Amino acid sequence: MELRDKKLPIEASDSLRGCPVSAIKPFQVMLTPVYVFMKLNKKFISVKRPLDFFTEEEIKRYQTYETFFVPPFVDSLVPFSLSGRRVRALLEMAERVFEQGEMPPAPYELSDAVLQMIGPLWAEDTQIEPFFVAVFVAELCGGLRPNLISESREKDVDGFERAFLASAWATFVLLHLGYNDLNYLIHFREQAFLHYSKSSTAFHARFDESAEVVRAADKSLGDGFSVISGYSLFRSLSGRVAEKMASRLFRVKTDLVIPGSVPVSLFGERGIIDA
Amino acid sequence: MHEFGTKPFRALNSFGVAGVLGDEGQVFYSTLFSTRHTGRVADLIVSRLRTFGVDELALRAGLIFTVFEAFQNTLEGARAAGVEIDARLSQKFSEPLILECGFDAEKLAIGVAFTLPEMHTWDFDNVRLRVESGKPGNPFEDLITSTLRYSHRVILKYQPSIRRVEIVCLLGAMAKIPAAQLADPQRFHLVLFTEQPAEPPQAHAYVELGDLDYPNLLREDAPPLDLPKSITDTLIPGSEPYAGDPGRTVRGAAGLEDLKRTVKGGIPEIDNTQTLVKGGVPEVDHSETTIKGVTDVQNDEKIVVSGTSSQSVQLSQLSDASAMSAHRESAYKKRIDELERRLLELDTQSVGSDKMVVRGGSSELQDQTRTVVSGGSGQPQDNQSEYGSGGSAGSSTGGGFLGGLFKKMWPFKKNAVDSSEGDDDDGDEESADESKDGLTQTAKPKLKKKKAKKKKINKTENQAGAELASGEQEEQDDDEDAQDSENAENLEVSPVGGGAEAKPAAQALEPVAAGAETSSTEADDLLALFDAATDSGKKDSGKTESGKKDEIVSETELTEAEITKVAKVLVEAAPSLEAVSNSIISELQGKGGLDDVITRAQKEMTEIREDFKTERSKKWADDLMNELVNEKARLGDFARKMNVSIRQKELEFHNREKVYEDELKRKEELVRQREILVKRLKEQVAHISTNLDRVRESAAGSSNEELALKQKLHHAQKMATAHREEADSLRSKIEELRGQLDSSQAGAKAKGASSNDHLADKMRMDKALKQIDELKRVNNQLQEKISADARKAALPAASPGGEEAKKKLAAATKVITITKRENDRLTTKVEELQREEIRLKADLNRSLIELKRMKSRGLREGQGGGGATGPGAGGASGSSGSGGGQAAA
């Protein structure tokens, strides 16, 4: 991913958002470019692009800067981040009630509630960019293990980025199919990441639905950055998972999508990448 | 088996139920992570497929057995893996269970897919035989056998390479599957996948259970607000719909204000004003208004009639006319009201009645209240009057039965009575006469009219009252004229209405409603009362039933607030009603009850009968007794009806109480929820306030941090100034060094050494060297010349020039040595200068480095205040001595 603005003039400071360096955790995948302010040059210089992460040494090194700056593009991530937190809270509540021995919401109730939370994330005609799905899943499932992502990135940066996006996309699809167990989703996401980064063959021999989802997600992802029209895409694919997904997205399309909404994009004026 | 229904299966070599359904098949699916929701999922599916036409129990069994099968394998897997967790307790699947329930036009398919645990060994040879014969070989087959019991078909798909299993149960819709297929004994089918299964065929729709309208499908029917009409409506009183129904009014009840009636006496001796409340207010008013008459009364005889006979105390058999009795009750009440009104009117015109006791009471008691009219026994003549005259204060209930009774009882004529009475009190007599006359005058025309009208009275809504009225009216019709004549005849002969002989009868009849007094005035009053009652009865009869009902309904419409008030009062008074009825019953049963009176009267009558001389008097006595007995029966009937109405009211109260209790509970629940909400809000407020305090503290803390930072800055500034001073000192030192350098250079200059002079010195040195070389050359030339000359000189003749040449040579040699010395000196000088130069360079570098260090330190520490950077140290130039040689010329 090549950033459009690797350097920003000092005049851009009005629109940038500050973030203390101490708030950044190591191996936390950045979902927005990160800038530091060079005083000598009086410019903001990008030190990390999206889907990159800081190591511990880097964080120490940048402590002197005290503040990282992120572009206003970060505002586009807020709805996805909030939805991820809400769905996580809902699934955690259900798990907590279950462990207390009480009757949690029924699977169909959870499924309905989750779909109503994530439905509005799709734009009209069920369009969405996988990058923002990754934002949602990052909040839902938390971060991947540091060793996984560092090994994967060291091996191949593009491969790591795609694996990151694809695993998030597969988890998103699984959530649509009524898989409402948080622990299972977290485990699945990690397994899918390993599969897509070719670090694991766990799904190769499996033919249960989750394995079908992994395969279907891979087919449907595309390059990982372009917008996906979910309903029409899954209708064009064959297989049980595709049919189920198309059915659910039909409901999203008819009942839950905000009419006239435009998909949030990495590209364009409000994005960070040139189209 | 490749078909079940009219169409063959589309695909058996794939997982999923879509393969066994037709093209139009729909599939509902759900992902289960635990068994805890199996029931609810089953409920939803069953509810959705209610109209499909499949046995609901079989469907539930299919769902539950298949899920249980998967769960059992989960347990086995957990045990095999040595997992300590009690999987049965956790009810969690090791992997999620995909439950699919699909249906097409003919059949329904339930599919559950799962993975067998690794340790599971399954011998699938002859599994079909074992399952179909009902002899399973292991628990897994046992469960399949159970599933087969409730399904028309069971298909087991198994992929051994990955131990993937799917159980599909098929249930045929009613009358859709051919009978031959249903009768097929081969109901179990095993599909083994030796290679990768195919993709399942496309279903018409896959619907996740969360996309169904589950709130409506699983909605429970709430109990109805309105109960249906009771089948025992006519049998059991109070079985009509809830009184809580806002559309329904309470029958018989009326506005409290409307029902309140004040009974006042018209004469000054009335010392009590009693408010009677009838209708819905369960106030039992046992108060008595004592109205004393103006004349002396020798016998304060009270005749109180209330309650019923002892025979009707118990709640007797409820007749079919219980509903009618309610109507009758209300008609009675109306009649009572009117009679009371009349009574009031007449009371104002009453003359010297001795003592009347009016006993008021609640609506339930109205039927039983009776006017008590007693008069002085010694003044029959004052009270005697023709029929139709007079009236007394008091109310009569039950219409004309009293009047008829009195008419029958009182055979005397008015005139005879007047003449036979003594003159105890002229004034009283006069007033009595006047009132009597007045009454008589007013009553007489009425009587005539009433006589005519009486015959026109037909059935009224209230049969009892009508019976009484009609019965009594008939009696009146029959006996009126006879009595009118007989009264006059028998005035002196049979002093029933007066004299001592009338006393025993009167005493005997004490508890009886009709007074057996001899007072003609009282009789006249009663007659007038009877007339008034019959008039009211006529008026009542004139109304239509519906009109009465409307009246009742209109009277009974209450506002909700009034109803609640009434209900409260009713609830409170319910026990009192019962107490009232019990008191009435006990009163009747008690000492001096009606039965006792009648028996005593009968006894005395038998005694008195002997004294009767005429047949007429005997007949009169007999009639009187008969009337008493009839009266007793009627009272009994009234008491029965009263009890019935009391029970109805009780039931009504009870129902209302229940409704109000429910309402109260609901409101209490609301209040509790609101309290909880308030509590939560308060907690939130407290939380927010603590957060606010925390923020404020942090702000204060941040101000502390600012102070610390300021101190730090100040310190850094101090450091920066110190460094600046140091830098200045170093600078000055450098200057000094420069100065020293300059001075050393100047010294070197003086000695011929400076950095610039060094070059000049060098040049000079070179020149000097050149000169030296030249001089050497010249010297050599001279020496050669000298040698040549010496040779020449050796030759004869010393020339005078030789000496000069020697001198010149000596001079030249001197010059040479001098030059050499000069040269050496300059060389050493040059070397010294060079050394000096190197030293100075080193010093300069050192001072530069120090300066840089100081600069950077000052910058870092005094960055906020702006570190002063010293100017860059000037490059100290090394100096070296220049070997400026002065070339000796």
In terms of quaternary structure, the protein is heterodimer
Mean pLDDT of chain B: 66
Write the element-wise H/E pattern of chain A from the N-terminal end onward.
Answer: EEEEHEHHEHHHHHEHH
Q: Which class best fits the helix and strand makeup of chain B?
A: alpha+beta
Basic shape of chain A: globular
Using the alpha-carbon principal axes, give the shape of chain B: elongated
Strands of the widest sheet of chain B, in order across it, are 6-4-5-3-2-1-7
Number of helices of chain B: 23
> Which spans of chain A have pLDDT < 50 for at least 5 consecutive residues?
none
Which structural class do you get from the secondary structure elements of chain A?
A: mainly alpha
- Overall tally of domains of chain B: 3
Euclidean distance between termini CA atoms of chain A: 11 Å
Poorly predicted regions of chain B: 245-256, 258-320, 352-400, 413-447, 485-520, 536-559, 865-889
Strand order of the largest sheet of chain A: 1-4-3
Number of strands of chain A: 7
Folded structure, characterized:
The complex is a heterodimer of chains A (275) and B (889). Chain A has helices spanning 56-61, 74-99, 107-118, 130-141, 146-155, 157-176, 182-196, 209-221, 230-236, 240-256, and strands spanning 7-9, 17-20, 34-38, 43-48, 67-70, 127-128, 228-229. Chain A is mainly alpha-helical and 275 residues long. Chain A has two domains: 7-72, no CATH class; 75-256, no CATH class. In chain A, the strands form three sheets. A three-stranded antiparallel sheet of chain A has the order 1-4-3, with no helix packed on it. In chain A, strands 2-5 form a two-stranded antiparallel sheet. A two-stranded antiparallel sheet of chain A has the order 6-7. The N and C termini of chain A lie close together (11 Å). The model of chain A has no long low-confidence stretch (mean pLDDT 89). With 889 residues, chain B is of the alpha+beta class. Chain B folds into three domains: 18-217, Heat Shock Protein 90 (2-Layer Sandwich), CATH 3.30.565; 256-313 and 322-656, no CATH class; 709-889. Chain B is 57% helix and 9% strand. In chain B, the strands form three sheets. Chain B has a seven-stranded mixed sheet. Chain B is elongated and about 235 Å long. The two termini of chain B are 136 Å apart. Classes of the chains: A mainly alpha (275), B alpha+beta (889). The A-B interface holds A 98, 103-104, 106-113, 115, 177-181, 184, 205-210, 238-240, 243-244, 247-248, 251 and B 15-16, 18, 29-34, 36-37, 40-41, 44, 95-96, 98, 113, 115, 159, 162, 164, 196-197, 199-200, 202-203, 205-212, 214.
